Amino acid sequence: MGPGANGQAPIVVVRDVHKSFGDVHALAGVSLEIERGTVLGLLGPNGAGKTTLVRVLTTLLDPDDGSATVAGYDVRRERTRVRPLIGLAGQSAAIDDTLTGRENLEMVANLYHMGRALAASRAGELLARFDLLEAADRAARTYSGGMRRRLDLAASLVADPEVLFLDEPTTGLDPQARLELWTVIRELVATGTTVLLTTQYLEEADQLADEIVVIDHGRIIAQGTAADLKARSGGEHLTVRVSDLAALEQVREVLEAEGDGPPTVDDATGTVSVAVSNGPARLAGVVRRLDEAAVAIADIGLRQPTLDEVFLSLTGHRAEGEPAGTLTGAG
Amino acid sequence: MVVSMEALRVEARYAPGDILQLWKRNMLAYRRQPDLLVFSTIQPVMFVLLFAYVFGGAIQTGPVDYIDFLLPGILAQSVLFGSTQTGVGLAVDVTSGMIDRYRTLPMARSAVVAGRILADTTRNVFVVGLMLGVGFLIGFRYHGTVAGAIAMPFVAVLFGQTFCWISAAIGTSVRRAETAQVASFVWLFPLVFVSSVFVPVETMPDWLKVVAENSPVTHTVNAMRGLALGTDFWEPLLKALGWMAGIMAVFVPLAVWRYRSIQ
Ligand SMILES: Nc1ncnc2c1ncn2[C@@H]1O[C@H](COP(=O)(O)OP(=O)(O)OP(=O)(O)O)[C@@H](O)[C@H]1O
Ligand SMILES: [Mg+2]
Predict the structure, then answer these.
(1) What is the side-by-side strand order in the sheet with A236-242?
(2) What pLDDT is stored for residue B238 in this prediction?
(3) What would the pLDDT profile of B84-134 be if each residue is shown by its tens digit?
(4) Any B CB within 8 A of A60 CB
(5) Which of A101, A278, B40, B79 is the 20 to 30 A CA-CA neighbour of A270?
(6) Contact at CB, B4 and A55, closer than 8 angstroms
(7) Does B188 lie at the interface with A, CB-CB under 8 angstroms?
(8) Which of A20, A30, A42, A50 is the best mutation target for the ligand 1 pocket, counting ligand atoms within 8 Å of the beta carbon and taking the most?
(9) A331 found inside a domain
């Protein structure tokens, strides 16, 4: 547990944590550290073990083996010390549908033993901050998905936690709501909160995290900044979509010549994709060549690698479970 | 699961206040869920009316009016059926993720189950009062002492509270609302009907009579009848209290253990 980059001990330390459910090794020896005031993005496909790790760190689940500390306290032996320091917004919103938004927050505040007056003012403050004042006195069952997420996040912030755990906070949100939530998370980090965030989207981790840990089948398969990971998965991708499938082979040849590796061809969608460095210059080259060859382009663009592509390059196999898809297509 | 001194200190210090918070939350939920309110009030009242008027004429209860015989029984039946809501409510909290929220808070562990049972017991007080009122309207009368009249509904509420712990153990084990509901009624129905709730046990075939005579429901209902009618009540009351103590001794630790093992 040596001092971190900023001279302080890491606020979260995970040492070789194992957790099995029957035959499933949800966590098969995970070790990581989070520096105070930073955001760690835990990236992985369905079933990777993200939620399991979050549950171990938030005292909900005892590890079979290994240890974990939050602010120096053991999550297993000193859970009563850990709990006042953490906040959790789980994968599904943990709010009481029959209570109003305000009652939900006041109840949580009371269970932190804040005292009635402070509980009421804290609830009001959070409702305002999360743009829920108008709906504050309505039963939470009438809230939209995005409002529930915001209320859940507000509940996790009631006691100003030092470490905030967000388990897929933007899954199921529309792009607008997702951007708003990102802003809120950035504001929290700016005030010194440490965040562990799980996600299935490289872009989300890229946007928010100082460091990204990629897990699969309960093991860490890569660790680094977003730039590191993208570089390891061949950086940017140039993708061309054609409306006439007969032209696919021509496009493949062009991308093979312009790209940094073998292109991947998707017959179903009529797209060809290849990793490129110095994307904008290559984009111009590809457009020119295809134009000369009189290939009609339906769509062309540069994009960051998806989780699927990161996985493919890191592990040699595709991410299992749901297709990782694109950020806007999630639900 | 490690139980530390620290955890016990948290428990002792915060349990009363936290139980009250959870009680408040559950009471609000009851008030706002009309279906629950209907289930817990209209249904028992309907039972009183149906049994009094539909079966009343057919069931022989000797010198005692059927409504005087019926009401203590139906109070016990109502609190027993009502106790299933404890397990259902806890199962809903597990599936909705609410329990996860509670378990990450620095609150007393016991408060979730105890607050739920306190709320269900409060509801039982209300239901029992309402049924007594309806009973009076259709002819129920006390024939015993004032103390007996006060003790009778109290025994019913205590009995209901006891069964809430069984229900809590079921709810925290099966962890699904529908399953908790079915898993409770499967044994509650025979338990209630094979007893002196609706009919004198003397009318049952011998083999069933043996079961009915030794049922905690029969002891409790007979004690309540004794208290209400001014007849002998000590023996069934002591047996009923013995049953309740036994049930609590098994199911309180069981419910707590099942709750703690939710992961
Ligand atoms: N309580 C449990 N009982 C049995 N198996 C479990 C339990 N919790 C998790 N698992 C299994 O452990 C593995 C890891 O699950 P986990 O929920 O941690 O994945 P995840 O990365 O959060 O996935 P997702 O993106 O779908 O939320 C999965 O195979 C899952 O089926
Ligand atoms: Mg998960």
Answers:
(1) A264-266, A271-276, A236-242, A297-303
(2) 97
(3) 999 999 999 999 889 999 999 999 888 999 999 999 999 999 999 999 999
(4) yes
(5) A278
(6) no
(7) no
(8) A50
(9) no
Regarding whether A33 and A174 lie in a shared domain, the answer is yes
Divide the 331 residues of chain A into consecutive groups of 10 and give the mean pLDDT of each group. Answer: 62 97 94 96 92 96 96 93 93 90 96 94 95 94 91 94 94 86 91 94 88 93 84 78 84 85 82 83 86 84 74 64 38 30
Q: Tokens 């100082």 appear where? A: A210
Residues in contact with ligand 1 (CB, 6 Å cut-off): A 21, 24, 26, 44, 46-52, 91, 200
For residue A262, the domain's CATH number is 3.30.70.100
Q: Which residue has the tokens 């912030």?
A: A157
Burial of residue B101, with CB atoms counted within 10 A of its CB: 0-12 exposed, 13-18 middle, 19 or more buried? buried
| Residue A144 and residue A287 in one domain | no
Q: What is the pTM of this model?
A: 0.82
Domain spans in chain B, listed from the N-terminal domain onward: 5-260
Q: Which residues of chain B does A111 touch, with a Cβ-Cβ cutoff of 8 Å?
A: 18, 21, 102, 105-107
User: Where in the sequence is the domain holding A265, given as residue range(s)?
Assistant: 236-303
Tell which residue, B243, B237, B234, has the closest CA to residue B216: B243
Give A182: exposed, middle or buried? Use CB within 10 Å, 0-12, 13-18, 19+. Answer: middle
**d(C-alpha A199, C-alpha A214), whole Å:** 10
Q: Which of A248, A291, A290, A254 is nearest to A271 (CA)?
A: A248
Please judge whether B25 and A103 are an interchain contact, meaning their C-beta atoms are less than 8 angstroms apart: yes
- B23 pLDDT higher than 90: yes
Nearest to B32 among A61, A95, A98 (CB): A98
Distance from CA of A6 to the nearest CA of B (A): 29
CATH assignment at residue A180 = 3.40.50.300
Ligand 1 centre from A321 Cα, in Å?
Answer: 12
